[in-house]
Structure formats: structure tokens, C-alpha cells
Specification:
This protein is of the alpha/beta class. Helix content is 34%, strand content 16%. The protein folds into two domains: 2-120 and 306-369, 3-Layer(aba) Sandwich (Rossmann fold), CATH 3.40.50.720; 131-304, 3-Layer(aba) Sandwich (Rossmann fold), CATH 3.40.50. Strand 4 (70-72), helix 4 and strand 5 form a beta-alpha-beta unit. Belongs to the AlaDH/PNT family.
């Protein structure tokens, strides 16, 4: 198969979808790999390293899309890429269709085969291609939250861990999944008082067992959240419904209950956000303020630490990408249910229920494709 790796062009997206080590693996299996020039530069990989691994370097993104049977990316195609996508071309990347109606319609119109990292799912319901970036984003959420809590950045002016004789900050984490767990561990490690809320009592029991003494667990419901936001200095949103729009757990009216200078970090922004007042921001302009509350809603947080993120992501995606290249997407998805669950839009049809529900589009059962 002919594999194409374009340079990411989303605002301040510095990751790359394939490392030179990944190129070597594709070449060992007899595949041809084309990489756009400087695609890996921001992640620490030179064109020379890709060439030595067996890739061919192409000058433009148009050339990469034009020649490839499978495009491997990190983030969803943006508008300037739509016209480059060919009928039946396989795109393997993060899509997050439920947060973007224009992207959904564009991929339907291009009749592409869209296999989304975020909905590839194991039998235990874990999301193997979302986990590594959720780990990065969860840890980053605390770093960024701590930074924007500083007074010159618009925050309340509180140190997460406090000092002797001064109480630490209160951190509220919405969701006890990968993002929430990593956020809580980081915040607790810095000395903050942390509260995690989740709707699963079993998950809360598990977190209660593994977390340090400065982490409390509380059942997630509207009443409890309204009470907790009153004393929170930093709120981290990490709720997820795979492939579907995130629920709004923090409503607009709750902002009036918060202290001025409270910081909210919405890690769920890729799936529409879990705060009613969330709107996607970029690393270039990461924050905005509503009712005195600072919102950080960067949609590609791990792009700020591309070396770590690229290695973490490609460690997870490469085995799946090799299956797709070795067998072709139809055979690979037919034989591997994990990959089959990653199919979202195929040749003009929406085959993932969460996407059809999000935009009220006709749904086709993925089994009809095989």
C-alpha cells in the first residue's frame, strides 16, 4: 500500500503521525511511504531521518494526498485539505466528528473512508488510541491550569500546593477516566486538595483505593457539582462519551457561583466540550473570560509537547496502521472488531451512531459494508 504522511497544518499542531521508526516497519512489510517535507521537524525528526528509514520526501501536501492510498494524520483535515481528499481514500486520524458538522459533511461529500482513532475500541471498552493523548492532556491540564491561576494571567492568584501556614488550592476534576485520573494525580502531587466526580460508583471505589489522601471522590450529579464549584479554584473537564458530543456539566448560570479568577480547563473540547460556555481555542490564543472565569479550551493540547506526544501516539497507532496496510481497510476491519469500531464515515455513509445522532444524519450499520 502507498502511505502518505502530510505535515499537520492545524494551528500550532506540532505532532506528526509517523516516526522514522514507523517508516522502517512499513518498509519491512513492503509498503511505500511518502512524507511531506518537514512533517516531523517540530517533533524532532528530520527529513534525513525519514529518508534513511526508507521514506520518500515530497515537497507539497497536494503531492502527498495525490499519491497516497492511506493518509495517516494526527488531527482532522481542515478546510483547505478537503478538496485534496479522493474518493475511497483511507484517512486514519483523530476526527471527532461529533464536534464539527462541516467536517462531517465534507467527508461525506468526498466519499472518503474515515477511520477515527478516538472510536477504535477494545472488547473491555477501553480506547487504545485515545489513551496516550488523554494521558498527556490530563497531565497538561494541571500545568496549564496552574499557569493561568497566576494573577498576571487572569487567574485568582493562588499556588496549587500552597505553602506552610497557607491552604492549597481546590481542584475539581469532572470525570474519573484517563484524563481525570492523570489530572488528579498531577494536582495531588503538587499538593492541591483534589475532588474527582464520576457517575460510576465502581470507578469511584477504584480511585478511592489508588489515590493519595488529598484526593476525595464524590458522586457526579448537578447538586454536588453546584456545591463543589463554589470553592474550586481550578476545574478540569475530562468527561467522554466515545464518538458522541460531551455533556455540559458546567452550565452558564454556575459561573456566577464561582470565585472570580477561577480557571476551567475543558479537555473534552474535541468532543464539543463539557462546559456550556466552552468554545475551541488555540495555543496561539488559548484563553478567554466569561463572567470573571478563565476558560482554557485548546483543542489540541498535546500538540504543545510534540516530542512526547508523537512517540506516545505512534506507539499505539502503528500496529493498527500496519494491519490496515497489510490487509486493506475492508479485510482489516472485517477481521478486527477494534478497527471496525473506528469506522465513522465510509463512501458517503455515516456508520457511527454517535455521529449520526449528533447531526441528525441517516445511519448505516457498519456491518452492511462487509
Amino acid at each position: 500500500m502507498i502511505i502518505g504522511v502530510p505535515k499537520e497544518i492545524k494551528n500550532n499542531e506540532n505532532r506528526v503521525a509517523l516516526t522514522p521508526a514507523g517508516v522502517t516497519e512499513f518498509r519491512k512489510h513492503g509498503h511505500i511511504v511518502y512524507v511531506q517535507t518537514e512533517a516531523g521537524k517540530s517533533s524532532g525528526f528530520s527529513d534525513e531521518q525519514y529518508t534513511q528509514a526508507g521514506a520518500t520526501i515530497l515537497s507539497t501536501i497536494e503531492e502527498v494526498y495525490g499519491i497516497a492510498e492511506m493518509i495517516i494524520k494526527v488531527k482532522e483535515p481542515i478546510e483547505s485539505e478537503y478538496a485534496l481528499i479522493k474518493d475511497d481514500q483511507l484517512l486514519f486520524t483523530y476526527f471527532h466528528f461529533a464536534s464539527s458538522e462541516p467536517l462531517t459533511h465534507a467527508m461525506i461529500d468526498r466519499r472518503a473512508v474515515c477511520l477515527a482513532y478516538e472510536t477504535v475500541e477494545k472488547t473491555d471498552r477501553s480506547l487504545p488510541l485515545l489513551v496516550p493523548m488523554s494521558e498527556v492532556a490530563g497531565r497538561m491540564a494541571v500545568q496549564e491550569g496552574a499557569k493561568y491561576l497566576e494573577k498576571p494571567m487572569g487567574g485568582f492568584g493562588i499556588l496549587l500546593g500552597g505553602v506552610a501556614g497557607v491552604k492549597p488550592a481546590n481542584v475539581l476534576v469532572l470525570g474519573g477516566g484517563i484524563v481525570g485520573t492523570q489530572s488528579a494525580k498531577m494536582a495531588a502531587g503538587l499538593g492541591a486538595n483534589v475532588t474527582i466526580v464520576d457517575i460510576s460508583l465502581a470507578r469511584l471505589r477504584y480511585l478511592e483505593d489508588i489515590m493519595p489522601a488529598n484526593v476525595d471522590t464524590v458522586m457526579s450529579n448537578e447538586y454536588n457539582i453546584r456545591e463543589l464549584v463554589k470553592s474550586a479554584n481550578l476545574i478540569i473537564g475530562g468527561v467522554l462519551i466515545p464518538g458522541a458530543k460531551a455533556p455540559s456539566l458546567i452550565t452558564r448560570d454556575m459561573l456566577k457561583l464561582m470565585k472570580p479568577g477561577t480557571v476551567m480547563v475543558d479537555v473534552a473540547i474535541d468532543q464539543g466540550g463539557c462546559f456550556e460556555t466552552s468554545k475551541a481555542t488555540t495555543h496561539e490564543n488559548p484563553i478567554y473570560e466569561v463572567d470573571g472565569v478563565v476558560h482554557y479550551c485548546v483543542a489540541n493540547m498535546p500538540g504543545a509537547v510534540p516530542y512526547t506526544s508523537t512517540l506516545a501516539l505512534t506507539n499505539a497507532t502503528l500496529p493498527y496502521a500496519l494491519q490496515l496496510a497489510n490487509l486493506g481497510w475492508k479485510d482489516a476491519c472485517s477481521k478486527n472488531e477494534e478497527l471496525r469500531k473506528g469506522l465513522n464515515v465510509v463512501n458517503g455513509k455515516v456508520v457511527f451512531k454517535g455521529v449520526s445522532d449528533a447531526w441528525n444524519l441517516p445511519y448505516t450499520d457498519v456491518k452492511e459494508l462487509f
